[in-house]
Specification:
With 171 residues, the protein is of the alpha+beta class. The chain contains 3 helices and 7 strands; from the N terminus they run E-H-H-H-E-E-E-E-E-E. The protein is 32% helix and 25% strand. Helix 1 (13-40) crosses helix 3 (66-82).
Length: 171
């Protein structure tokens, strides 16, 4: 059974600036990929190579974790589906449209020296952010999503799967 946890984060002002800069970069990449989609006309032609080209062309993207940039391809695909698979009806996103940063296969690590100590979420190229963990996280972490809301509160959602599964006997 998959589990999902949500905890409050307490980033410093410097970490908030880095997080907001990351949101800005994701918005920029999404909009650039939308421009590429308008030229290519089909979503199937958008690939990680397009993100790599953007990363080479725009130096400020070099400080971004690549999985966040590649996640914008999925974001673009979902928007394309919502637009009825019509590129013409898709609009560029604004920064306020970006409220989540998904980390799927890396770029994050949870740190705790010993049971009962403070917990930190280390985000690659952003920093070590204290997290208010109020219960144990059980299972293998599969995805971490950093979220922000309009009132300057920051959260982390953690999705896990069990370490093992028991397969029922079939007759």
């Amino acid at each position: 059974m998959k589990m999902k946890y949500r905890f409050m984060m307490n980033p410093t002002e410097e970490e908030k600036k880095k997080l907001l800069r990351t949101f800005e970069h994701c918005c920029f990449v999404y909009n650039k990929l939308l421009d590429v989609l308008r030229i290519k006309k089909t979503i199937s032609e958008i690939s990680s190579k397009d993100v790599t080209r953007l990363k080479r062309r725009y130096k400020e993207l070099k400080n971004m974790h690549c999985t966040l940039l590649y996640a914008q391809i999925s974001h673009l695909f979902r928007s394309w589906k919502e637009a009825g698979e019509k590129v013409e009806s898709m609009r560029p996103k604004k920064l306020e449209d970006f409220t989540m940063l998904p980390f799927y296969k890396g770029g994050y690590q949870f740190l705790q020296k010993k049971r009962g100590d403070d917990v930190f979420l280390v985000l690659h190229k952003i920093g070590r952010i204290p997290v208010d963990v109020d219960r144990d996280i059980e299972g293998q972490v599969k995805k971490v999503v950093v979220e922000r809301d309009g009132s300057d509160d920051w959260y982390v959602s953690v999705s896990t799967e069990p370490f093992f599964s028991i397969i029922a006997k079939r007759n």
